[in-house]
Structures are given as C-alpha cells and as structure tokens.
Amino acid sequence: MTPEERVEHLRRELDYHRYRYHVLDDPTVSDAEYDLLFAELQELEQQHPELITPDSPTQRVGAEPLEAFEKVEHPAPILSLASAHSVEELYAWRKRLGRLLSGDDGVDFVVEPKIDGLTVVLTYREGRFVLGATRGNGFIGENVTQNLRTIRTLPHRIPANPRAGVQPPAYFVVRGEVFFPLDRFEAFNTALIQNGERGYMNPRNAASGSLRQLDPQITAARPLTLYVYDIVTWEGGDVPEKQWERLEMLRALGFPVAAEVRCCDTLEQIAEMYTEWQQTTRNELNYEVDGLVIKINDQPLAASLGFVGKDPRGALALKFPAQEKTTRFIELVVNVGRTGILAPNAVLEPVEIGGVVVRHATLHNFEEIARKDIRVGDRVIVKRAGDVIPYVVGPVVEARDGSEQPISPPERCPVCDAPTTRVPGEVGIYCDNPACPEQLVRRVEYFVSRGAMDIASFGKETGVVLIKQGLIHDVGDIYYLNRDDLLALEGFGEKKADALLAGIEASKRQSPVRLLTALGIPYVGGVVAGTLIDALGSIDAVAAASEADLVAIEGIGPRTAASIAGWFRDERHQALLDKLRRAGLRFEAERKAEQGPQPFAGLTFVITGTLPNMTRDEARAFVEARGGKVTGSVSRNTSYLVAGESPGSKLDKAQELGTPILDEAGLLALAGEG
Ligand SMILES: [Zn+2]
Fold it and tell me: Burial, 623: exposed, middle or buried (Cβ in 10 Å; 0-12, 13-18, 19+)?
C-alpha cells in the first residue's frame, strides 16, 4: 500500500468509527484502537504534508449532530485535547513547552480525571440555566436543555447558595461531563433488558443514550450526574487566572466538581498519580475514567501558547492503557464446576489488554450468551479491569460475515454426556451426574482444601490422578484408599503415599462443621455449616430437618434451606454419607465443655471481611469458646458485627440497622482480653 492509499484508508476508517461513536453512540472499536489509527494518520501526514486535506479527521473535531435535536452554535470552540499514552510522552510534552516558555520555571499543573462520559456545554443568564448542549462537532452541538434540567446535580440557579459571597456575571458558559454512575449501571441495564429493550454496551453509552432521549421523562428516570471542569465564556466578570481557583469558584457557585482534582508542581507528582490511578483509584471511583487531564494552572499563560493543529498546547490528555479491546472469539469451552454448573468460557485470539495478554474470557452463563447473542467466530469486546476475570462484554454485530455459529445451551455435559438440568429461577445449567469426572475433580479439590477438611498432603494433582485411575468415585472413597494402590501409581513413592494416608487419617478428627462444609452443598459455606451444627447438633439432624425446620434457624434463608433439604434427599448423597460414617468421620458435635468464663453468653456475632490476625474460622472459635453465637447474616438480633478489611454488604446492613461494629481489637477488648 502506498502512503497515499494508506492515508485514504485510515481516513475512511476513522470517519466511520467517529460516526459510530459520536452519532450512533454504538462504537465497534475501543477508544484505544481508534487512538492508534488516529496516531498513525497523524504520523503519515507529518511525513507527507502534501497529503493533508481540509477534510482529514486530523483537521476536524467530532461528527455531525443528529437531525432530531435543534442545533446550537457554541460561543467558542469546544476543543478536544492532544493525547499521550505514557509518562515518557508526558515528559516530551513538558519539554516542548519548556522551549516555548521563557524562563521555564514556576509552571504548575492541575490534574483532573478524564471522565468517560458525554461532554456538555451549559449556558447561564442572569443566574439561571438557560441552555445546555452536547459537544457535537465542537462548533455546533444539540440542544438537550430539557434533558439536562432533569439531572439532579445540575444547578438551575447560580449561585446555588446566595450567601456564598461569589457572584457570577450576567452571562457565562461552562463545560462539563455527564456520566452514568457505575453503581447504578448493572441493575439499570439488567432491568432494561428484562423489559425486552436493548441494553447499553457500557456506562458511557448509557449516559449518552439517556441524555439524547427525545422524551425528557425518560432521561429524568435515569440516574445521570455530571462534573463541571472548564469555563468557556465569562462575560463582564472577573475570572481567576489559575485553573485551580476557577474550579474552586465553580464549586463555590454550586457546580459539582470532581473531588479527585489535584494541583501538581512537578511531573514526578503527575507520574505518581498516573501509576496510582491505574492501580487503584480508577477502580474505586463511581465513574469510568480513561485517563488524566493535565492543564497548565496559569490559564492566560496556557492560552498564549496557542495550538498545534486543533489541539491547545497548554493541556494534555494522559490516557490509561485500555481496559477493553476487540478480538476474535475462536472457540467455546465449557468447564464443569464443583456443583456441576456448566461455565462457558471463550478461547480468544490473544489480545493485549492493559499490559497483559488475554487468551480466555468468561461468558458468565448461557442466558447471558443468549441475551447478548454472542456467537463463536464473532469479533467480541473483551474487558479486563482490576482483579476481575476478563469477560466478554458483547459481540461486534457489524463485523459479522455470516460464518459465526450461534451457541445453544448444552443438553448434555461436555465431559460425561449426562443430561443437563436447570434450577427453577436460576440462570445456571448443571450436569446432574455426581460421578461426572470433572465435577469430581473440583469436588475433591474443595473437600480437601484449607477451609474444609484441610488435608495438606492431598495435592491438586493427586485428585486428578486418583480419579483417572478409578480409585475415587466420590469424596467418600478418599477414606478407603490403600497403600498398595497408591504405590502402583506413577509418581508415588513410599514417602508420598504414607504422608497422604496420614493426612487423610488425621482429617477424620475434623469437626462436623468442617465436614458439613466440605460436602459442598450449594450456599453452605463455613459460617452456615456452623450455624446448622450449633442449632441442630449433628449432620444427621441437619439431614433429617425439613425446609421449615431449617428456615426457622436464624441465619438460614429459604434459598439455603431448599438447597440443603434437596441435597440430603438425593439417594446418592445418602450413600456418600454412609460411606463417610463407616470410615469413622465425626458427624456429631461434642458437648461444649463449660470451660472458662463465658463473657459472650447470649450474644450473637456476625464476622465479615479479613481480620488482621485471626482467620474467620479462628474468630468464630474465639467467640464460641466464650459462649457467643456466630451467624451468617446481619439482622435485628445481631449483637455485634466484627468487620475486617473489605467487609462488603454486611457492613452496610449493620450500619443501616445501627448494629454496633467491632474490629478485631474491639472483639478482644469486649472479651476482656484486649
Ligand atoms: Zn458431567
């Protein structure tokens, strides 16, 4: 391809993608991929200036507005910023500035989050909000005043607090970003889809789609919000010279301004922020950010630097590596979990996302696949953010060529060929064969794990080997292994075989709470197992209890009760219990010896999060040894919530109910042992 052809190709591509993004609100490539194409075009044009034409995407900003909304001319161009993608590029930008600035010292910067939302231009006259427009092509936007008025965080009158002592001029225009709060997005989108509507690809599309509704009532029903970050026009009044002071003034007038804005004296501080935001901050905010915006604090100085092409020199968008990319979905792999659940996973054409090569992504479940109509062979958008397992966001329908294969929910287990079942009211599809080898591997793995029977000598590979050799058909068979069979296995010497058998033997003394946990009954983890044994005294009593008996126990909900009763009704599980009993495992709780003082008698505790020194099991044992009870969920009967790090929803519930909250030290102190 000649440079001329390549330039033409890139322009057509960019035009198409900009149209999809700005006009249709339905992009088919990620922002990062768009930026790459744009950067390539810019570079080619730099090398071949004779190829630059007035209609090149590098010479314009944004796309044409839709016809449906009235058009609004902005009082000044609403500019986009040049982007940088690394700290090196940030330093290079600063170096170029240094050559333009005489003296070069004393320049400081304001660093703002680059919110991934929809830019809006807000006009106020005589202290009232009179006009709001989208950015459009940077010169002409769409009049969305009625819709903006529905946003609760947008001030209708300025100053919002007349006693603030700040008076705005009779006419001014500010710029902000409307966005869809992340904590509302999932539930909102699910509800939309359940009503048979098409869901939004991401929060940005949801913000944009919600603001550009022709019916403002629809917008009003959505939780949009905004941050304001720039002054476009300020007629007649004094405007502070520093961006930092401008933001403070906007805040004082009653505009929402992001709390995360910082003032930085050095590039090192900015570089530090850039790292910190990628690692933690961006994952903790209630809005999506795709980078940081760096502005020279001294705005008249910034303005005096002029432009490169369409971009002002005095500011820079320092972008984060993308969390989303598109790639090809090559093959569907269905994994079988411990409970028999069939988990669909996508094998992907390897794609680098945020510095990591991603080859697999979860498709969540088959209902999700059907809902999003994801097909094998599709180009798909894959997201990898923070610690979350990479997942498929959705297909790029426009990229289909007809060869893609729709996916139907499996009627048989891909491993053992047993028929699959569904649980009413749940989305999961299960393999119903307890002898399914893959399920068995997961179940054995769980049975011997630290939180269950804790057999340290039982390695991960051991289960696979024993199942393959037909020595184990359920977890009960673990207790009937013999030394000769083990020695006949590849990789098993006497030492290894004896250690394994000793570990298995020792585990027979584990408590019935651990044994009940290890059975892997859905919804029955360590805390619930403890609650059940506390209330009923033995595994046999749990097995004999009706659903109604179980629900009557505090901390056991109807879903858990149904799951327990169903599990024990299954004859195959009854046979397993017999096998375990004959092996000599403990089914019955020992009567608690009344040893030592019982300061927690009559008190009920819930333990959540990670405690600094005790595991949760240890904390439970600590409470129980002192006469207290531990349950799984916070209710009005909970005396104390013991909360460690990352406590989750139980902490919210406790705060809502006014339940006293203790940390580990507080728990010790309450026992008089702090
Ligand atoms: Zn199976």
Answer: buried
Q: Is residue 114 flagged as an active site residue? A: yes
The reply to whether 227 and 302 lie within a common domain is yes
Residue with the two structure tokens 């909360």:
643
- 491 lies in the same domain as 527: no
Our measurement of the distance from residue 61's CA atom to the centroid of its chain's CA atoms, rounded to an integer in Å, reads 32
Which residues are CB-contacts of 314 (< 8 A; sequence separation ≥ 6)? Answer: 97, 295, 296, 299, 301, 302, 303, 305
Catalytic residue (one of 71, 114, 242, 629): 114
Distance 445 CA to ligand 1 centre (A): 16
SS3 572: helix
Structure tokens at 46: 């730099």
- What is the 439 CA–ligand 1 centroid distance (Å)? 6
Q: Quote the pLDDT of residue 117.
A: 93
Ligand 1 center from residue 419 Cα (angstroms): 8
What does the pLDDT read at residue 64? 42
> In terms of residue numbers, what domain contains 487?
437-507
Interval 270-329: pLDDT, tens: 999 999 998 888 888 999 998 999 999 999 999 988 888 788 999 999 998 878 889 999
Give residue-wise pLDDT tens across range 581-597: 999 999 998 765 556 77
**Whether residues 118 and 35 fall in one domain:** no
Q: Return the CA Rg of the chain.
A: 31
Distance separating alpha carbons of residues 213 and 16, to the nearest angstrom: 23
**Residues, beta carbon < 5 Å, ion ligand 1:** 413, 415-416, 431, 433, 436
Continuous H helices in 106-241: 145-149, 182-194, 203-211, 216-220
570 and 452 in a single domain? The answer is: no
Would residue 592 count as lying in a domain?
no
**Cα–Cα distance, 460 to 434 (Å, whole number):** 20
Separation CA 31–CA 64 (nearest Å): 19
